[in-house]
Design brief:
The structure holds 3 protein chains of 3 kinds. Chain A is mainly alpha-helical. Chain A is built from 6 helices and 3 strands; from the N terminus they run αββααααβα. Chain A has a 3-stranded antiparallel β-sheet with strand order 2-1-3. In chain A, α1 (17-34) packs antiparallel against α3 (64-86), α1 (17-34) packs antiparallel against α6 and α3 packs antiparallel against α4 (92-105). Chain B is mainly α. In chain B, 66% of the residues lie in helices and 8% in strands. A 3-stranded antiparallel β-sheet of chain B has the order 2-1-3. In chain B, a hairpin with a 2-residue loop joins β1 and β2. Chain B is elongated. Chain C folds into 2 domains: 40-141, no CATH class; 156-278, no CATH class. Chain C has 4 helices and 18 strands. Chain C starts with 19 loop residues before the first helix and ends in a 33-residue tail after the last helix. Classes of the chains: A mainly alpha, B mainly alpha, C mainly beta. Chains in contact: A-B, B-C.
Chain lengths: 161, 179, 311
């Protein structure tokens, strides 16, 4: 486990919270994209999948648009949002504008739930093993949720007279 | 925030997207979304038969999750948007304003969870890829469903709660409610 | 002070551009649905005595190796005498549903009689079809057993008379020089119960291999030859291992005897004589389509030393 930036304090809305969480999210994002999520073993070899293999399979099956869509909702939008939030202290207005837009389309937590469902469903038939990539992706999602929440709280606080 | 809204345009956009989503939900539910061949079991599933399959395999919590994500939520969203649009059109009594705005926020939040089934198909297809004896093939129905979900999200984004406030038949300025 | 500016009622076009989106959605959605249902062909009903293995929505109708239909429903007939199976054909396979079409359920079957349909262990039962000829029909009676392969034009059948049936059953292969050239169709006791009569059918390109003086023998089962040079266990096809087989050889007299006509009776010996195995008559196979339908597995003829295959 890597260390985050020290969160300012337990005080909610600490000034550094959104950016710090966002950075943490980004740190997790790289391995999440590269490392395998799950390995299933069946009669024969074992196969691993990560986030990108799911996208690629949609593309291979003649659904390139859907592949891009999943890539955006589960990958690009969260990463962009995280990147935006890390810069939120310096550019709060931009962060706010783009954040609102991106927040609608960034849904990595839904992806995590989908993975869990797939895991359980496959687990009945074949042997399934969870790999590091999934943990990283989940951590990234949680970091994103926390960062966004912290950011919004900070906004409402700062807009109070 | 951005430039001041144009109430009628928000209304139209929301209604148009919502209608489009409704149209897309027809093929999404009628057409199969997934074909699996695994462990001797060959099946082609629509959203509904997929849920039934999960349930009949004893995985009723999963069936419930997918049921809520893929059937209940889209329906709720469209119904909710319908209520909001209707209210905006007919005029909102002031005491309902808060409730309706909360409804809007609620729809905004739950919308994304409908993407669950789309991600699920992508994941399954991605894991079990290289042909017989096991394979998972996504089918056109899932594209229609993803389109429907995207459209409901667009519809929710297009809706501006301020058209609710604008429709309040009152002389006094509308109160700011937390959104 | 008003929080909102008074809305400017500008004379916009009555229908904002955004309504193109639902129109699009309607068109695309309709197109997707039409596309899907375009492949739907006619629905037919097949009555089977037994519906085991048939799963609604899963069991497919397979013809020439391709799935061309799917079972929509299966229910007991009102008089409880069987099962009515509702099946939807693909549009391009609609012509299968003609009078005289034969349908049967393929399940894995390993018995002394036959080894069949083992692939269905993995894939689940399927329904096979022999197309009929004639008017389109919608209601069929299914077969309980797979039909014997139809005599293709040019095939010829003969009757073998043997001491015992041995391990021979309908579907058992008939070999010439370890190549499968025909199939056993049926068998029964002779009228006076002293012998067993076996009808076998030789496929078209090979009918001329059977001459008036051809000798047939029981070549099936599993034999282990222990001899001077050690034990020998021939590689065997799964078929003849379990279900027995018949082999024949034709003496290479000069000139060759006449080809045997249909229904000629031959004696079925229990084993081959050594000299039979040495015969090597030159008999041209006259069918131009030396089709690739030859089974690839070499046949078991354990009593034959490696006689070599036909060039």
């Amino acid at each position: 486990m890597r260390c985050n930036h020290p969160l300012a304090t337990a005080r909610r809305g600490g000034k550094h919270a959104p950016a710090a969480l966002a950075v943490a999210g980004l740190i997790f994002a790289a391995p999440a994209a590269l490392l395998p999520f799950m390995t299933i073993g069946k009669l024969g070899g074992a196969r691993s999948g990560n986030f990108l293999t799911g996208v690629a399979s949609l593309n291979e099956n003649g659904m390139p648009l859907l592949a891009v869509w999943v890539l955006v909702c589960g990958g690009f939008a969260p990463i962009l949002l995280l990147a935006g939030l890390t810069a939120s202290r310096r550019y709060p207005d931009h962060a706010q504008r783009w954040g609102r837009v991106l927040a609608h389309w960034a849904m990595p937590e839904v992806y995590v739930l989908a993975v869990l469902v797939a895991l359980t469903r496959l687990g009945r038939i074949v042997q399934v093993e969870i790999n590091a990539g999934l943990w990283c992706y989940t951590a990234m999602s949680l970091a994103l949720l926390a960062a966004w929440q912290a950011f919004r709280l900070r906004l409402t606080e700062s807009s109070e007279p | 925030m951005n430039r001041p809204p144009e109430p009628s345009s928000a209304f139209h956009r929301t209604a148009a997207f919502a209608l489009a989503a409704a149209f897309m939900l027809l093929p999404a539910n009628l057409l199969p979304i997934l074909h699996t061949e695994m462990a001797g079991d060959i099946r082609t599933d629509t959203i509904w038969t997929g849920i039934v399959e999960l349930y009949s395999n004893g995985l009723w919590p999963l069936a419930l999750i997918v049921f809520i994500a893929s059937l209940v939520i889209p329906f709720l969203k469209l119904a909710g948007l319908g209520v909001l649009l209707l209210s905006a059109h007919r005029g909102v009594p002031r005491d309902r304003l808060y409730a309706l705005t909360r409804l809007y926020a609620f729809l905004d939040v739950i919308g994304r969870w409908s993407m669950l089934d789309v991600f699920l198909v992508a994941i399954l297809a991605g894991l079990v890829r290289f042909g017989a004896p096991a394979q998972v093939v996504p089918l056109p129905g899932i594209v229609a469903f993803a389109a429907a979900v995207a459209l409901t999200i667009l519809a929710t984004r297009a809706f501006d709660p301020r058209i609710l406030w604008a429709s309040v038949p009152a002389e006094s300025p509308s109160t700011e409610t937390s959104g | 002070m008003n929080a909102l500016p008074k809305p400017k009622v500008s004379r916009r076009p009555a229908i904002p551009l955004v309504w193109v989106v639902p129109l699009f959605a309607l068109l695309i959605g309709a197109w997707m649905l039409i596309n899907e249902y375009r492949n739907h062909g006619p629905e037919i009903v097949i009555d089977f005595e037994d519906g085991s293995g048939i799963a609604v929505g899963k069991t497919r109708l397979v013809h020439k190796g391709v799935a061309v239909g799917v079972v929509l429903g299966a229910k007991l007939k009102p008089d409880l005498s069987g099962v009515s199976v509702r099946l939807r054909l693909d549009r391009d396979a609609a012509s299968l549903a003609t009078e005289g079409a034969q349908f049967w359920v393929v399940q894995p079957e390993i018995s002394f009689g036959a080894v069949r349909g083992l692939d269905t262990i993995l894939t689940g039962a399927r329904i096979n079809v022999n197309p009929g000829r004639g008017a389109p029909a919608r209601h069929f009676i299914g077969l309980e057993r797979p039909p014997l392969p139809r005599g293709r034009d040019g095939s010829r059948s003969f009757i073998l008379s043997g001491d015992r049936l041995g391990s021979i059953n309908p579907g058992s292969p008939v070999f010439y020089r370890e190549v499968k050239v025909g199939i056993v169709e049926s068998s029964r006791l002779s009228d006076d119960s002293t012998a067993v009569l076996i009808r076998c059918r030789i496929e078209a390109p090979y009918v001329d291999l059977v001459r008036a003086n051809t000798r047939f023998w029981n070549a099936g089962g599993f034999a282990f030859k222990v001899g001077l040079f050690g034990a020998e266990l021939k590689n065997t096809s799964l078929e003849s291992l379990v279900s027995g087989g018949i082999a024949f050889a034709t003496p290479d007299t000069v000139p060759l005897a006449a080809p045997a006509p249909e229904d000629t009776r031959f004696e079925l010996a229990r084993e081959a004589d050594k000299d039979w195995l040495a015969w090597k008559p030159k008999i041209p196979l006259h069918s131009p389509e030396q089709s690739a339908r030859q089974p690839k597995a070499p046949a078991l003829a354990p009593l034959l030393p490696s006689a070599g295959k036909p060039e």
